[in-house]
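Lab notebook, bench 4. Still working through the backlog of constructs that have no structural model yet. Next entry is a single chain of 159 residues. Request: give me the structure tokens for it.
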Amino acid sequence: MRRLHSDAEGGYDRGALKNPSSFRQVLVLLVLAAIPAVVAAFFHPKRPAWNEAPLAPGEIRLQTALDENEKVLWLDARPAADFQKEHIPGAMPLNEDDWDSLLPQVLAAWRDGKIVVVYCSSLQCHSSDAVAQRLRNEAHLPDVYVLKGGWEAWLAAKK
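Model written out:
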């Protein structure tokens, strides 16, 4: 086997890679190095979501919010009747129709370091963006996000 070695001027013998067996060895090493990377790309628990649509500014994925667990203050921007029927456990109602009466209890529940996640039905209601924007602009709350996929993302995860 021919080895790469320094010549007198400090360079390397470039002729070593012209040798077919050296080229094959380098190729085998590259393939062997790529195998763990490919395996990690598909099976690592924190791998990138290849098939998910990118997040819009101010959005958060359900799993990311769930990973934050106790830090999340869930806010339901759907109409009151929908909230009464069913909601994410621990969520508080905050919709635009009842903004003035519901906001004080939301502000009382918010603590520094909390992440606010607003959701609505992605099929019927688009108020979560407006509610999140008002919380940022009027209530000056930091870390306010809209749940990507809304209420339907939560229902799909429960199944």
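Notes after review: The first helix runs from residue 20 to 43. The two ends are 59 Å apart (CA to CA). Flag for follow-up if needed.
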